[in-house]
């Protein structure tokens, strides 16, 4: 039934009966099926954006879209590491919904071995490439598609938000070298992206979360949640919540952030202070 609701919303878009919805801002959020991505979808929907929750987990993406406040949200399948999948998603959204104004590259993957990070000499080339495919190639493919469409049809307040990690800034806690390197690459990529999209009147910024209460963090912590051990080095004394990260995204995609680009915003409770 959730899928039917999404289809119905799509039909209303096509008939143009949403009272000017085509003029509203449209946001594509990758990795929108759960965790931080789901919360980002929620806050952007609260702010009146039409949200496309895109995820390799198609059912999860649809469930997120169906639960969002307001109407006209969508859940689509997307494999960010697959060029064809990315191009098809953007073409579908642009043709059937409208021009994408906001791109949030949240999808990420952390590969561990038996719950612990593999050392470099234990890391296979396949694992290295798979980690980069989701965490670095994915944002590149999505950003390229965004730029291509915006060059043809500009929008006001274009925004791209990428995701790095405090693991990249500190060398990681229980993150693999592949993950650290992939997330470090995002910081440099976002700076280049910020320079290039400026000509479109758009901005690009990265967010570097610290310890955030997600399935990925629990995986990296061997299944543990918030403990005295993993909060002892956080000045604010707590594990972050997806809502803390989503709040930073909410600001960066707003018109109020129009003079911030190429920056990396730390959301880590003071765990790392530059």
Would you give an account of this structure?
By secondary structure, the protein is α/β, with parallel strands linked by helices. Helix content is 46%, strand content 14%. Helix 1 (2-15) packs across helix 3 (58-67), helix 2 (35-46) crosses helix 10 and helix 4 runs parallel beside helix 5. The longest helix is centred in the middle third of the chain and has 28 residues, at 125-152. The protein is globular. Mean pLDDT is 89; it is low at 1-22.
Short overview:
It contains 10 helices and 7 strands.
Structural key phrases:
7-stranded parallel sheet, 10 helices, globular, disordered N terminus
Quaternary organisation: single chain
Query: Span from first to last CA?
Result: 48 Å
Number of strands: 7
Could you say which overall geometry the principal axes of the C-alpha atoms support? globular
Output the structural class: alpha/beta
Order of helices and strands: HEHEHEHEHEHHEHHHE
**Strand arrangement across the biggest beta sheet:** 3-2-1-4-5-6-7
Major β-sheet annotation:
7 strands, parallel
Low-pLDDT parts are: 1-22
Could you tell me the strand content as a percent range?
A: 5-15%
Mean pLDDT: 89
Count helical runs: 10
Backbone CA Rg: 18 Å
Helix fraction, binned, reads 40-55%
């Amino acid at each position: 039934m959730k899928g039917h609701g999404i289809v119905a919303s799509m039909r209303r878009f096509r008939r143009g009966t949403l009272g000017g919805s085509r003029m509203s801002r449209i946001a594509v959020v990758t990795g929108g099926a759960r965790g931080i991505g789901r919360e980002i979808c929620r806050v952007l929907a609260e702010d009146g954006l039409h949200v496309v929750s895109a995820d390799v987990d198609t059912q999860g993406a649809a469930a997120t879209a169906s639960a969002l406040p307001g109407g006209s949200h969508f859940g689509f399948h997307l494999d960010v590491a697959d060029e064809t999948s990315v191009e098809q998603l953007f073409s579908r959204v642009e043709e059937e919904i409208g021009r994408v104004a906001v791109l949030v590259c949240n999808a990420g993957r952390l590969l561990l071995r038996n719950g612990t990070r593999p050392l470099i000499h234990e890391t296979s080339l396949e694992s290295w490439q798979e980690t980069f495919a989701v965490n670095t190639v994915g944002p590149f493919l999505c950003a390229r598609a965004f730029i291509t469409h915006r060059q043809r049809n500009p929008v006001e307040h274009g925004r791209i938000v990428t995701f790095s990690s405090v693991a990249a800034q500190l060398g990681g806690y229980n993150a693999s070298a592949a993950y650290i390197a992939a997330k470090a690459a995002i910081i440099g990529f976002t700076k280049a992206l910020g320079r290039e999209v400026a000509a479109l009147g758009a901005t690009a910024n990265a967010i570097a979360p610290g310890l955030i209460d997600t399935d990925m963090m629990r995986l990296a912590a061997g299944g543990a949640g918030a403990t005295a051990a993993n909060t002892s080095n956080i000045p604010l004394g707590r594990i972050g919540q997806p809502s803390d990260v989503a709040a930073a995204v909410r600001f960066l995609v707003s018109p109020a952030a129009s003079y911030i680009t190429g920056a990396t915003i730390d959301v880590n409770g003071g765990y790392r202070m530059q």
